[in-house]
Amino acid sequence: MSTFLFPDNTVLCNFAAVERLDLLQAVLNGRGRWTAAVAYETSKSTRFLPALTSLATGGWLEEPIEITADADVQHVNRVRRAVFGGTDDEPLKHLGEAETCFVIKEWAAFAGSWWISDDREALRYARFQGITTYETIDLVSMAVADG
Amino acid sequence: MIPSLGKVIVPNLCDFRKPLARIVPMPGTADRVRHLLRESGLTQHDFATRIGLDDSKLSKALGGGRRFSSLDLARIADLCRVTVDWLITGDEPPLALAARSSGGSAGNAIREARRLSTMRSDIADLGFPQPWHPSMTDLGSGGWVDQGNRLADAALAQIEQFDSPVEQTDLADLVEAVFGADVAVLDLGSGFDGLATSSEQVKLIVLATSQVPARQRFTLAHELGQLLAGDDQGVHLDEDVFDKAQAKTPSEMRANAFAASFLMPEATLRTAVGTAGLTEQGFAALACELVVTPSALAYQLKSLRLIDAGTCDRFRGLTGRRAASMAGRGGEFAKRVTEASRPRPPGLLVRDTYAAYDVGATTLRPYANLLGVDVEEIRRALDVESGAFDAS
Hints:
A: three-stranded parallel beta sheet, 8 helices, B: about 400 residues, mainly alpha, four-stranded mixed beta sheet
C-alpha cells in the first residue's frame, strides 16, 4: 500500500509564496494528493499567489478526491463542525481539513497517509487520531536532505 | 423515501430572499437543488458557474447521472443559505424553521440556540451527550396548573439531594448540575425573555441578559418547566414570559404554575405568613429572600389564599428595588442586577467541549468559539505553565 501525502492549502501557499513549488513536487515525488475542498481553497488563493495555478494544470497532486456518498458527506460535515469549529452558516469553512482527515481515517486506500499542515490545532488533533503529520519545515528539511 | 409534506418546507434564500409561500415535495438532493436553482432566478449556466461546476456536470447531477460532492453541496449551501444536512435529508430541525419566521431579538435567540444545539448534537456523537436528568414524576390527569405544581414538587425533591437551596444558589448553575440542561444567557437586546429547545440529544435554555434579575429567574424556571414537562420536542419561545394572552395556553399555564411553585413553594410561603400574616416589610423581605418579583410573589400568595385581593394589589405595586431597600438588601440586589446583565455561555457544553479537546477528540476551536475568543489567544493562555509571581 502506498503512503500518500496530503498538503493543506497553507502549505501549498508557503511553497508558492517563495516560488518553490518545484521543491514541493520533488519531495512529494508523485505521492501528493488533495481533496476537492483543498483544491478549491487553493484556487481561491491563486488571486494572491498566481503560482498556485500550476497545481491545477500540472496534475502532480492528481485529480482532487471527491466525497460523494450521502453518509460520507454528512460525516465530513459533522467533523467540520464538531472537530474544526465550522458552522452551518459558513459551510465551506474548514471543509478542506475535514475532508482530508476523513479520507485518511476512513478510506482504506489512503490509510497511513501523512497530513502536511502548519496549523497547530489541526496537527494536535490529527496526532491524537493516529494520523502521521508533518509541517512545511519538515518538507523543506527532507528536500535539503535529498539534495 | 418521500418525506411527509410537513417536513418539507421551502428553504429561505438569503441572496434571493422569497416568502415561504409554497410547500413542495422534494424527495431527493437533486430535487432540492433543482428547486433552489428555480427559486434563485439564475440560469442553469450561471448557477453552475456560481457553484464551480460546468454545465455538463450540473446537468448530470440534476439528472441523477452524477452525485453531488461534499464540495458541491457546501458551495450550494453557501450560495443558497441552506444547510448541507438539509440538501441531503430534506429535514429541517424545528429551530431552523423557527429562525426563518422570527426577527429581532427572538430571531437572534433562535439562531444562537440553533448554533448551540448543533454543537451539542455534534459533540454527543463524539461521546459527550447531554447529561439530562429529568424529574421522575407522573403528571397525572389533573389540570394544567396541578401538573405544574406536581412537577415543581418533584423538581424540588430532586434539588434537595444536592443540598443547595434554590434561593441561595445561582439558579443557572443549579439547573445544569441537577437536571443536566444547558443554560445560556445572551445579550439579545430588548423584547425577548427566553426559550427552551428540546430534542433527543439537546436540552437547552436560552435567556436574555436583563436588568431585572427576578424576571430572568422566573423565565429560567418557566423554561425548565417546559423541558421537564417533556412534551415539547421542538422550540418554545417566550418573548414576554408574563404575557397574559399567552399565559392561557395549556403548556404556558403548566410552565407558569411550575415556575411559581418552584421558586415560591407553598410550604415556604405558609411558614413565612404564619398565623400573624405578612406586613409590607415582611413581604419585601420574603421577595428578596426568594429572589422573585414582588408582583409574582403577591399573585402566588393570593392564589394560595394567604392574602386577599386588596393586599395583593397593594403588595404587587412594590418594585424589586424598593423591596430590596425596605429589606436592607440593596447591596445584594445590585449584585444580582449585575449578574443578570452578564452573558453566560452554556456551562455543560463548555465543560464537554473542553473535555473533548482535552482527550484529542476535537481541536480547541469549538471551545474558543463558545467563549467567543480567538483560538490562538486562548491556546497561548492555556499553554502558560504558571501564573505565579516570583518575589525572590
